[in-house]
Design goal:
Layout (H helix, E strand, L loop, with lengths): L23 H10 L5 H4 L4 E4 L5 E2 L17 H6 L5 E7 L3 E6 L11 H9 L5 E3 L6 E6 L6 E3 L5 E4 L1 E6 L2 E2 L15
Antiparallel strand pairs: 1-2, 1-3, 3-9, 4-6, 4-8, 5-6, 5-10, 7-8
């Protein structure tokens, strides 16, 4: 049975299978309570804004590059900017990486077994629910490497450079720290 991620109210009667909160009040309260982004991310000048299509933007609204840092900024400046609809973090090859689990949740809101296995291999590191509400971003330390996609019944992408990730919502109970990532094979 699906429950509101903030107040644990039953969501069984909701029309949307992707609903995670029973009300806007609960969604806002949950987001405010869990906006504990790791210092290892907020201390870097790798932040951009993003548009509704998830394209990276500078704080002035121009398109930003994932390979040229002159459009990147601090966390504070990106957070205070009004361009676009949200924020993103550029993976610049400096040791931060993300395991992106697309379509990780089943229709009933539980994790697919393959996604749960990847999450279990990477405990105690910052994890967020992606913008779609149906995926997970597992953040951690990862040596620079070319991006990799695993499409063998799993929908896994691994990135540590030449890419940016649209910031999602911290997962309930997630750690505000980063750990070395265990990359699935």
């Amino acid at each position: 049975m699906r429950k509101c991620e903030h107040c644990d109210k039953d969501l069984a009667t909701w029309r949307s299978r992707r609903a995670r909160f029973c009300s806007v009040r609960c969604r806002v309260a949950r987001c405010r309570a869990n906006k504990r982004i790791p210092t290892d991310l907020t201390s870097r000048k790798c932040w951009v804004r993003r548009d509704a299509l998830k394209r990276p933007l500078t704080t002035t609204g121009a398109l930003a590059s994932v390979s040229v840092s002159n459009g990147w900024t601090s966390y504070r400046d990106a957070k205070n900017a009004t361009a676009g609809v949200g924020m993103g973090f550029v993976l610049d090859g400096s040791g931060i990486g993300v395991i992106d689990l697309d379509h990780a949740f089943a229709a009933d809101g539980t994790l697919h077994p393959w996604a749960a296995a990847v999450l279990d291999q990477n405990p105690d590191t910052f994890t967020e629910v992606s913008q779609s509400g149906n995926g997970l971003h597992i953040w951690g330390y990862l040596a620079p490497q070319r991006g990799k996609k695993l499409r063998d019944g799993r929908n896994i992408e691994i990135y540590s450079m030449g890419r940016y990730m649209a910031l999602g919502t911290p997962r309930r109970g997630t750690s505000p720290t980063l750990k070395p990532l265990v990359v699935p094979v």
